[in-house]
Amino acid sequence: MCVCVCVCVCEEEEEEEEEEEEEEEEEEEEGEEGEEEEEEEEEEEEEEEEEEEEEEEEEEEEEEEVEEEEEEEEEEEEEEEEEEEEEEEEEEEEEEEEEEEEEEEVEEVEEEEEEEEEEEEEEEEEEEEEEEEEEEEEEEEEEEEEEEEEEEEVK
């Protein structure tokens, strides 16, 4: 009887030890699985963070590109405006020069006309003077003739 009890007790102890070992192994496995899960979660978080960073970088790059494009457009618009202003100024200067030239031409024509008129007037005056002189001469001649006639009559 003693032998049986000892054997049974020993078997129970062995079974208990085996169960404890199995539980420990399960706990270890669970612990390892938990660690693996944590590692996987950490890796996922890191990947998400990396993705977020990449997205942020892409957004920043896009914003920079948009800003650069806007700046380029503004510069182009400013250059176009400056060119237009310069063209307008040149056109205005050309118009002013043309007007001045026209005015000078008109003045020259007017001066020429005035000179012609003066010359004509002078010519007319000279003609009048000549006519007057001729008339005076004729009168003198007539007077002389009359005087001669009178003298002859008196004789």
TrEMBL record:
Renumbered residue ranges of the record's region Disordered: 9-155
Segments of skewed composition (Acidic residues): 10-155
Descriptive protein name: Uncharacterized protein
Species in which this protein is naturally found: Halocaridina rubra
Lineage: Eukaryota, Metazoa, Ecdysozoa, Arthropoda, Crustacea
